[in-house]
Specification:
The protein is of the alpha/beta class. The protein has helices at about 35-40, 70-80, 95-105; strands spanning about 5-10, 20-25, 45-50, 85-90. The protein has a 4-stranded mixed β-sheet with strand order 1-3-2-4, with helices on one face. The longest helix has 15 residues, at about 70-80. The two termini are about 25 Å apart.
């Protein structure tokens, strides 16, 4: 599965900025966070992934059995791919359970 995401970091290269993972809500895309990027990316690396089945990603089949673990694994795979292991997460809409599950499993 490919994950669409945007990656923004305008911090000083020598500062070693922390990463913020911005998870959008239901029926949105990663673009929902774009107005936050100018405020956050000066101090942090801001990663805004598209969630499985939303935005420009391939729609999921109507009989797809959604699971929280599947969405958590998508976020973890992306962070591993980017080499970000200390991450603060923010969420929109229904993603509070996803963020809490990420914290529970991987902190």
């Amino acid at each position: 599965m490919n994950i669409e995401f945007s990656d923004h970091d305008f911090s000083d290269p020598w500062s070693g900025s922390e990463t913020i993972l911005m998870l959008h809500g239901n029926a949105e895309s990663h673009e929902v966070w774009f107005s936050w990027i100018p405020h956050l990316a000066r101090r942090f690396r801001v990663i805004c992934p598209g969630m499985r089945g939303f935005g420009a990603l391939t729609p999921m089949p109507t009989d797809h059995c959604w699971s929280l673990d599947e969405l958590v694994e998508d976020a973890v795979r992306l962070m591993d791919h980017l080499g970000s292991y200390h991450v603060a997460a923010s969420h929109g809409d229904e993603c509070a359970k996803l963020v809490l599950s990420l914290i529970d499993k991987y902190s």
